[in-house]
């Protein structure tokens, strides 16, 4: 189950309210203290937690909640709504270009799951939106990145464009787009290079690709297992490059939930997809309301 520890603690804290006929302000405060601890233990950003708790409390007190017939249910509903809002309220979709091909540039640190996610995303959009994607291999630094993309592409029966590792990423990306236009691919997904840490060379290279290629979407791939680090990475990438959305990987693992619950509030960028496993069809569109309900059980 997703965010097991967090779910259990939230259910415990809120469950205590359910049985009560009437709630006092102290009941709500006690429950909110537990909710706050549960969120902090799940590695949710401190400021995000503070704002969240204060919003929930305000609504609990302000809305005649405590006088209602089922006040506990009311509080749970409010928590659910605020969790949903924290994660962006509504599903955020890929915006496709009115004049194809749509160009998506994938960025992120090495190991976040970028190359795998490029394949997953191409496969998803081919299957569910009848797109004809082309994957473009611009990660010329990581040994075997090009080969990895080719393997992914062949498994999905999706073409991969590469020029080896001796050309620069801007030229490869441009040639890839021309190739897509010639071949009738209406979607180009560019796999860029990642580094172990954010550094200036990496950002400059990504900025060059962005300037020359003018992608319709820059999607940042981050690893949910790294919690607040992932959120910091997202903030840095967004400040340096400007991203349009986030793909959160490895949510199938033993992750606490901090990245999923913080990254939208911290960066103001939506999570568009989530990675739920190593297989190429383990990618799902992100629905804030469904995630909130999953967490609250
Ligand atoms: P890159 O360096 O960012 O291109 O990362 P890769 O695409 O090579 O992925 C790094 C590792 O993470 C690989 O072993 C992937 O199989 C794994 N991975 C990627 N996405 C997910 C996911 O959603 N869940 C799990 N469990 N593993 C993933």
Automatic annotation (TrEMBL):
Biological processes, Gene Ontology terms: SRP-dependent cotranslational protein targeting to membrane
Coiled coil: none
Location of the protein in the cell: Cytoplasm
Principal cellular location given in the protein's record: cytoplasm
Domain notes: Composed of three domains: the N-terminal N domain, which is responsible for interactions with the ribosome, the central G domain, which binds GTP, and the C-terminal M domain, which binds the RNA and the signal sequence of the RNC.
Function field: Involved in targeting and insertion of nascent membrane proteins into the cytoplasmic membrane. Binds to the hydrophobic signal sequence of the ribosome-nascent chain (RNC) as it emerges from the ribosomes. The SRP-RNC complex is then targeted to the cytoplasmic membrane where it interacts with the SRP receptor FtsY.
Stated name of the protein: Signal recognition particle protein
Species this protein is from: Alkalithermobacter paradoxus
Primary gene name: ffh
């Amino acid at each position: 189950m997703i965010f097991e520890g967090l779910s259990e603690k939230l259910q415990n804290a809120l469950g205590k309210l359910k049985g009560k006929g009437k709630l006092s302000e102290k009941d709500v405060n006690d429950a909110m203290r537990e909710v706050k601890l549960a969120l902090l233990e799940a590695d949710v950003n401190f400021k995000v937690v503070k704002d969240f708790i204060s919003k929930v409390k305000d609504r609990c007190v302000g809305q005649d909640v405590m006088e209602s017939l089922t006040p506990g249910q009311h509080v749970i509903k409010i928590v659910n709504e605020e969790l949903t809002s924290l994660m962006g309220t509504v599903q955020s979709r890929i915006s496709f270009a009115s004049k194809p091909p749509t160009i998506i540039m994938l960025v992120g640190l090495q190991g976040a799951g970028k190359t795998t996610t490029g394949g997953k995303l191409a496969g998803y959009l081919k299957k569910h939106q009848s797109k004809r994607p082309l994957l473009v291999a611009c990660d010329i630094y990581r040994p075997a990145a090009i080969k990895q993309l080719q393997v992914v592409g062949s498994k999905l029966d999706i073409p991969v464009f590469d020029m080896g590792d001796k050309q620069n990423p801007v030229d490869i990306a441009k040639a890839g787009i021309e190739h897509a236009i010639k071949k009738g691919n209406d979607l180009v997904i560019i796999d860029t290079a990642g580094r172990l840490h954010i550094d200036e060379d990496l950002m400059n290279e990504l900025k060059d690709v962005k300037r020359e290629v003018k992608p319709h979407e820059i999607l940042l791939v981050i690893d949910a297992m790294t919690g607040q680090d992932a959120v910091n990475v997202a903030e840095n990438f967004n400040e340096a490059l400007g991203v349009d959305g986030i793909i959160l990987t490895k949510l199938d693992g033993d992750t606490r939930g901090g990245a999923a619950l913080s990254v939208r509030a911290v960066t103001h960028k939506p999570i568009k997809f989530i990675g739920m496993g190593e297989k190429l069809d383990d990618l799902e569109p992100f629905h804030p309301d469904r995630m909130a309900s999953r967490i609250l059980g």
